[in-house]
Amino acid sequence: MKASNVCVSKPNGDANCSGDFSGPLALKSSKIQVSLTSFGSEAGCELVYLAAFTRITSYLGWIKQNTGVEY
């Protein structure tokens, strides 16, 4: 696990499934996206495992440099 990852346990117990990659993780109260799906357990998405996301703030410099988008 890297500092650029966020691990979460989803309330309904499911984990990231195949094809979920790059899906958002957002703060429900403010609708602010904080990360993108990175990886989940190879055991399947129906089991209660942590889901790993990539922390967007770890890449803001790269995003600005490569897209010109200000944050």
Give the structural class: mainly beta
Let me know the average pLDDT. Answer: 75
What percent of residues are in strands?
A: 25-35%
Helix content: 10-25%
Low-pLDDT regions: none
- End-to-end distance: 26 Å
The helix/strand series, from N terminus to C terminus, equals EEEEH
| Assembly level | single chain
Strand order of the largest sheet: 1-4-3-2
Total DSSP helices: 1
The coarse silhouette is globular
Rg to the nearest angstrom? 13 Å
Major sheet attributes: 4 strands, antiparallel
Number of strands: 4
Question: Which terms summarize this structure?
Answer:
4 strands; 1 helix; four-stranded antiparallel β-sheet; 71 residues; mainly beta; single chain
What does this structure look like?
- The protein has 71 residues and is mainly β.
- The protein has one helix and four strands; from the N terminus they run ββββα.
- The protein has a four-stranded antiparallel beta sheet with strand order 1-4-3-2, with no helix packed on it.
- It is globular and about 40 Å long.
- It starts with a strand and ends with a helix.
